[in-house]
Amino acid sequence: MKLMSLVLLGLFASFAFGTDNCGYTPIGSSSHIEFQDTDAVSLTVVNSFETGRNALGLDLFSAPAVNQIIAVCRDSLKIFTYELDGSVAASISLDPANTNCFGFAWNDNIDSRVYNTNNWSSTDLYTSENLGDSWTTSANPAEHQGRGMDFDGTDFWQTGADQTVWRFQPGGAAEEITVPGISGSLSGLTTFPYGGNMGIVVAVYGTYNLYFYEWDGSSLSSLGSAACPGTDIDLSLGLTYNPVTGNMHWSYLNTSGDYIIVEYTFDISAALERSSWGSIKSSF
Q1: Reported pTM
Q2: What whole-number distance in Å separates Cα of residue 193 and Cα of residue 180?
Q3: Do the Cβ atoms of 202 and 248 come closer than 8 Å?
Q4: DSSP readout, the chain?
Q5: What confidence tens digit (pLDDT) does each residue in 48-76 have?
């Protein structure tokens, strides 16, 4: 096990972070953060590109002959889709009221698409069933603490406050689950098939590791962590799993103010099974 340390420099006001820095409110004005890179998880960079704009949340749009990354740009109030080489494929508009959107997740149904987004300054969840032409709202179980989102084939997931994640149905049942072994504010989240169960990965704004867990339908257990696959990292942001390639994509803000999306392969104890989704979903 390798131990690394990082000193995060700079003094930031909580209000400024809340409005201008991706919804991140630091625990303290300056933090010395130690984090661990475990031998159980290894990451290898495949590709990376600068987006030229905010790249929050992240999700993956896959359909016949289509394989694109989805990222939220709250500055322009749009959701962009990118080809894997970084070129912009399309965009749709957010709800005009959703000025502090972070997370995006859709229901993976190409014939009947439902898009969900959150907002770090309100308790609303925004939903569109017409490709962003109009949006409705419902109560977000994570309230204004919701950040990264994903859909596992049955349920939606979302990072929340105080090292928790939420499993929920928009406007319906919700379950808050504690994430073990992390300190700091969570940002991105993605799910992925892991053997007969499901894997979950979360990012933390100011701790530059990605944390891997197994969800057995009732609890999370740690699979290990790995150092984020970027350089000059300022904030660690979005995550998504690509079922077409079996890789993952992670977004971050670097110290030069550039938003970058990285594609990487991942291996967990050399025994990761990228199998199809099993019957792993439990009812609320």
Answers
A1: 0.86
A2: 20
A3: no
A4: -EEEEEEEP----HHHHHHHSTT---SSSSEEEEEEE-TTEEEEEEEEEE-SS--EEEEEEEETTEEEEEEEETTTTEEEEE-TTS-EEEEEEPPTT-TT---EEE-S-TTS--EEE--TTSSEEEEESSTTS--EEEE-TTGGG---EEE-SS-EEEE-SSSEEEEE-TTS-EEEEEPTT--S-EEEEEEEEETTEEEEEEEETTEEEEEEEEE-SS-EEEEEEEE-S-SSEEEEEEEEE-TTTS-EEEEEEETTS-EEEEEEEEEETT--------S-PPP-
A5: 999 999 999 999 998 888 999 999 999 99
What the block records as the tokens of 54 is 């905010």
- If you write DSSP's letter for every residue of 105-168 in order, what string do you get? EE-S-TTS--EEE--TTSSEEEEESSTTS--EEEE-TTGGG---EEE-SS-EEEE-SSSEEEEE
Structure tokens at 74: 């709250």
- Residue 14 phi/psi, 5° resolution? -60, -40
251-274 tens-digit pLDDT: 999 999 999 999 999 999 744 443
Per CATH, the architecture of 38-268 is what?
A: 6 Propeller (2.120)
| Residue type (1 letter), 28 | G
